[in-house]
Amino acid sequence: MKRVLPVVFVISLTLCLAGCDALRKMAGRPVSADIAAYREAIASAEAARTKAVADSLAREDSVRRAAKEAEEALRRELLEHAPYCIIVGTFQESANAERLLSQFLQAGYQGKLQKQGNGFTAVYIAPSMTLEEVKEAYKSVAAEKFCPKGICIRKAK
After folding, report:
1. CB 124 within 8 A of CB 91
2. Are residues 111 and 143 in the same domain?
3. Residue 125's domain is classified under what CATH number?
4. Strands of 152-155's sheet, edge to edge?
5. What is the pLDDT of residues 115-134, one digit of tens each?
6. In the 8-state DSSP scheme, what is residue 89?
7. 66 and 100: one domain?
8. Dist CA 21 CA 19 (whole Å)
9. What does the alpha-carbon distance between residue 115 and residue 42 come to, in Å, rounded to a whole number?
10. Mind spelling out the 3-state secondary structure of 50-73?
11. What is the pTM of this model?
12. Helix-strand-coil percent breakdown of the chain, rounded to 5?
């Protein structure tokens, strides 16, 4: 027992002075340097993943923006060349036409003003490619509180 006690004491003192890394190394476990390298690798992978997500979101945003611009261009084209639309009024004073158009635009309709040969300004809304579409739009337009009486469907020549 007297011989074992000094040996245990020397081993304990050596292990205490050598620290945890010596114990880990003897046990085949990763040491502090290995753990720090693992943490660095994880942080690097996380940063790369975050950058990839940000890049993906930026691409998606640019695609959405391009699609929205294309949709707006298509709407403008439709507004200019649609064979059917609804005439909601013609006005001698263009300010009155602008006021009525703004009410319909705020309600979510597409529309435009068009100067007529007689000097009046017509308010055209809900351009459509088919008669069925414009008839459906006519029903909802006529139900609006601010819609004047006597609206009609116009077919382009």
Report:
1. no
2. yes
3. 3.30.70.1070
4. 111-115, 121-128, 84-91, 152-155
5. 999 999 999 998 888 899 99
6. E
7. no
8. 6
9. 67
10. HHHHHHHHHHHHHHHHHHHHHHHH
11. 0.53
12. 65, 15, 20
